[in-house]
Amino acid sequence: MVFGQVVIGPPGSGKTTYCNGMSQFLKLIGRKVAVINLDPANDALPYECAVNIEDLIKLNDVMMEHSLGPNGGLVYCMDYLEKNVDWLQAKLEPLLKDHYLLFDFPGQVELFFLHSNAKSVIMKLIKKLNLRLTAVHLVDSHLCNDPGKYVSALLLSLSTMLHLELPHINVLSKIDLIESYGKLGFNLDFYTDVQDLSYLQNLLAQDRYSSKYRKLTKELCDVIDDFGLVNFTTLDIQDKESVGNLVKLIDKTNGYIFAGIEASAVEFSKIAVGPLDWDYYRYPFIISYLKCSAHNCLYFQFSQELHHVLSFDRTLC
């Protein structure tokens, strides 16, 4: 089995910086890492990538040939990659023996909750190459300073979790800069644990621009609360301890920590629910999998609830 991460998130959330820093950290703890760049708009890579989608298709060429903008061009590129997934599979096969994979995806959020092409690429690779992947969804921590943007980030995180159907970790990135964005309305725990969102509604009511949408905001917050799936961990990519804690969490979600351990189901359960601080040197190379994914029925339920909330009802505004 081959383990890795699917790195996603809105533009500017720090995906490329994350892949660069994460690859360096994983190499320090003894893993061979291969970074796969699947963002055709990313033409200034700080890391050495093992596979680059630009060898298959270039965004600028697509935009010029088909008279498309950047967003349309990225959708076209993902469609093209889906139809040529055998190319990507052939590029990955030499890496499967001993590499840990980091997939750097584009930042256009519609690729991960409106279109199925990116998901289809991931699922085909999982099936054909027996990959065990965790989705790492980065959200810029400055969104916590704006209640409206924070609710938007929660909805995006929830819809992406349900759409991708992968073990999933939401991350507030650039946490070291959060104080520079201004004072938070609540303690950081409120934003990471996604606690009672009614308090957030009260904060929105104080904003003259957001107050007129308070009914709509309440309905959206109720959808998030009903599912109870979203929470965040924090990350400072330049802090080894912060990155290390995130790696331990990722290794639990995709099953990396269970490799090489000969134990009963009870012992596996103890490891799964135990603290994050396990010994890397005792279990240096892990080759098992603990499947954890949302189900299609959950995504359908979310779509129905969100459609109900966003239906043409002026009473919400």
Automatic annotation (TrEMBL):
Keywords: GTP-binding, Hydrolase, Nucleotide-binding. One of its GO terms (cellular component) is cytoplasm. It holds the Pfam family ATP_bind_1. Belongs to the GPN-loop GTPase family. Binds to RNA polymerase II (RNAPII). Small GTPase required for proper localization of RNA polymerase II and III (RNAPII and RNAPIII). May act at an RNAP assembly step prior to nuclear import. This is GPN-loop GTPase 2. It comes from Ziziphus jujuba (Chinese jujube).
